CBS domain-containing protein
Amino acid sequence: MTTAKDIMHSGAHWIPAHETLDRAAQMMRDHKVGALPVSAEGEQDRMVGIITDRDIVIKCVAAGHDPSAVTAGELCDGTPRWIESTADVNAVLDEMQSHRIRRLPVIENKKLIGMISEADLALHLSDEQVAGWAERVYSRT
């Protein structure tokens, strides 16, 4: 059985909710990622959301806000989603499809150990699985 841990990329990095979006963008650049889980104030291991490079551009910059004045915590909305490291790949696909998300944090013993992105799916799954996932995540219905 292939698990979430088998297909994730390890070394995911948190950003504290109080950090500004310009700092988040710098972290994304430095770590070559497009998303960062956001940790609760004073609780490094509790996720309150996830921010993406697109969120920063659309919800902050394009809206006329200053990324050095808006925090990661202010940008988070919705319920954060994640998956246990032992979850089967089908559970990963179901979670991402049902919530129409493109990145999924992987948790083990209540700690962030990695992320699963579209690229990880493409590397580890069959063409049919990736096509089915993309159809459900990207469809407008």
Strands lie at 9-10, 15-16, 35-40, 43-52, 83-84, 103-108, 111-117. The chain has one domain: 4-138. Residues 8 and 36 are 14 Å apart (CA to CA).
